[in-house]
Specification:
This protein is of the alpha+beta class. It has two helices and six strands, in the order βββαβββα. It starts with 9 loop residues before the first strand and ends with a helix.
Length: 144
């Protein structure tokens, strides 16, 4: 019996947040010591829901206190991990709203953040999950 080509890959289960500003740009972050831009978020802890994980991770990485009312589920996607070889990510992706009076402040392993225009070509330094799934979905969605 032949093994599937992905059978040797490990999978990271993550939850991520899409913050989109009024200029239709998506907030992306870069972890310390890496070159790929990705969404804020991270791995689910044992017994944690994706919603709990994204709220916790955004708090840790960007010092923003989200509530469940600040996020809405966009979908689940899989792609090659940006920074771990032979690894895939299985991501629960949420649209997030920055709560009134709060601002982003980099913390934890986050070294940089930027706004990626959804109306321009996607640069090669964007993680596969964003490039293959999330950006095309956001570009195809009607404006709010």
């Amino acid at each position: 019996m032949c093994a599937s080509p992905d059978s040797s890959l490990s999978t990271l289960y993550i939850a991520t947040a899409c913050f989109i500003n009024h200029a239709k740009a998506l907030l992306v972050v870069r972890k310390r010591g890496t070159t790929m831009w990705m969404l804020p978020g991270g791995k689910l802890d044992a017994g944690e829901t994706a919603q709990q994980a994204v709220i916790r991770e955004v708090g840790e990485e960007l010092q923003v206190s989200l509530s469940p009312n600040d996020i809405s589920f966009l979908g689940s996607f899989q792609a090659a991990a940006a920074n771990e070889p032979d690894t895939r990510v299985s991501a629960h992706v949420f649209r997030a709203r920055l709560p009134e009076g709060q601002q982003f402040s980099l913390a934890a392993e986050i070294e940089a953040c930027d706004w990626l225009s959804l109306s321009k070509p996607t640069p090669p330094s964007v993680a596969p999950l964003l490039r293959e799934h999330i950006i095309p979905m956001l570009q195809a969605a009607p404006s709010h």
